[in-house]
Amino acid sequence: MAREKDADDTVRGKPAHHPGTEAKGPTRAVVIVPVLTRHQRNDDETNRPRLVRSAEARHDEAVGLARAINLDLIHTAVVTLNDPRPATLLGSGKVAEFAEIVKEGHAEVVIVDHPLTPVQQRNLEKELNAKVLDRTGLILEIFGERARTKEGTLQVELAHLNYQKGRLVRSWTHLERQRGGAGFLGGPGETQIESDRRVLQDKIIKLKHELETVRRTRDLHRAKRKKVPFPVVAIVGYTNAGKSTLFNRLTGAGVLAQDMLFATLDPTLRRVRLPHGTPIILSDTVGFISDLPTHLIAAFRATLEEVVEADLVLHLRDISDPDTAAQAEDVERILADLGVDAGDTKRVIEVWNKIDRLDEGNRSRLLADGANTSKAPPVAVSAVTGEGIDALKAIIETRMAGELEDLTLTIEPAQFGLVDWLYRNGDVVSRTDNDDGSATISLKATRSAREEIESRLHRKNNG
Question: What is the Cα–Cα distance from 449 to 456, expressed in whole angstroms?
Fold first, then answer.
């Protein structure tokens, strides 16, 4: 199966311009998606069968990853492999075929959507006469371009250096760059390998020290938040599931939200007040992806600790994606690596996003399937249209503050300073102003709100 890019369908990115250099168009690239027919699809730890993605879905995701760094894709192809070659992964015939495509299309980069050993990467570069990126290298490139904060840059750079440490290929230009991660697509080339390794190790030690400082700072911030008891709710999910769109919908923030893989990288936290007044801290995190490089999981552990420490986790799924089940499995596997049990329905809420993209028949079927599951039924929403958002807020508030309770209070004239608070933190059903100047108020409030009301009344009575 092969796909050619039409001339008007190429990615037209704007490359960085450096003084003294001529402006250059986007890098021309070829994308190869190997599909191994005998590939082991069991989980490494549980040995349970893993869901297998379709070749079409893998192809589309690989193209999306390449587009995320504005590559000009001149050719994309899915290649079925019965017996991967230790030297080049691909068979000699396919290597020769792609070498011709690279030559005719003047491609500078070949992306192989599969992990490559250092030997395979080096041999493919020689045969194809182009720089070669495997899936891990490509994701590192994207993360390098997406990092905006110092912490994000440090994390990407650490992951990049650990990845490069054992690779004897012409991809060492990150040593001359200030921006972490983006070290494959340009630069002067390879220097002495042993010297590079020493520099790499020194930089790794330095970055780990800097990240440890970041981790301690984050711990301090987390400790301060715990002194003000605002529960933390973290949004996690497969990349492009709509996490930032949902975050914006819930908070009114302006976080970048685009139909693009890894549109946001650095975590964002905002304070949110739920409908009945319960305050929470909402956290938007980096998107997960299948075969997420272990270098990245390790490097981003400081950031992902926000998920580990969260009181509630929203597992957001793009329910309109044909591979949503496989994507959910990948997210659950990474959560398990972080020590979060996705099956813990008291701590994890499954949220089905993008239901506005489903026709009525598929929507009804999926919602019926979800209602009949042995787990807690998922919450169906559309972060774009707002459908289901009120129900999601109500469920979050119930988990964080308890079920709504019916209260009837008599507020004495000296306590009228509490009335405004009651209106802001509960649903006032009725109010009766009495002849003695007091007011009888009936309202619905969460358990935590009731406890706060009792505490405030007690202070007023004893003040």
Answer: 10
pLDDT beyond 60 at 119: yes
**CB–CB of 425/452 below 8 Å?**
yes
Q: Is 247 annotated as a binding residue?
A: no
Q: How far apart are CA 64 and CA 275, in angstroms?
A: 37
> Does 240 count as an annotated binding residue?
yes
Structure-token match 């994890």, residue found: 348
Q: Is 423 annotated as a binding residue?
A: no
Q: Classify 266 in phi/psi space as left (phi over 0), alpha (psi -120 to 50) or beta.
A: beta
Has 73 been labeled as part of a binding site?
A: no
- pLDDT for res 5: 38
308 is in an annotated binding site: no
- The answer to whether the annotation marks 113 as part of a ligand binding site is no
Between helix 301-308 and helix 150-164 the angle, nearest 10°, is 120
* Distance separating alpha carbons of residues 114 and 134, to the nearest angstrom: 6
Annotated binding residue at 226? Answer: no
- 394-401 mean pLDDT: 89
CATH numbers and ranges of domains, the chain: 28-37+52-133 (3.40.50.11060), 231-401 (3.40.50.300), 405-461 (3.30.70)
Q: Report whether 284 belongs to an annotated binding site.
A: yes
Q: Does the annotation list 331 as a binding residue?
A: no
238 among annotated binding-site residues: yes
In terms of pTM, does the model score above 0.70?
Answer: yes
What is the rounded distance in angstroms from the CA atom of residue 444 to the CA atom of residue 429? 7
**Mean pLDDT, rounded, of the chain:** 79
Which segment of 155-159, 266-270, 329-333, 377-381 scores lowest on mean pLDDT?
Answer: 266-270
Token pair belonging to 211: 């990240």
End-to-end CA gap in the chain: 78
Is 353 assigned to a binding site?
yes
- Please indicate if the annotation marks 264 as binding a ligand: yes
pLDDT, one tens digit per residue, over 7-46 is: 333 333 334 344 444 456 788 999 999 998 765 454 544 4
388 annotated to bind ligand:
no
Residue 432 annotated as binding site: no
Token match 């949004």: residue?
Answer: 235
Known binding residue 401? Answer is: no
> What is the rounded CA–CA span in Å between residue 8 and residue 22?
24
175 annotated to bind ligand: no
Q: Tell me which of 113 and 221 has the higher pLDDT.
A: 113
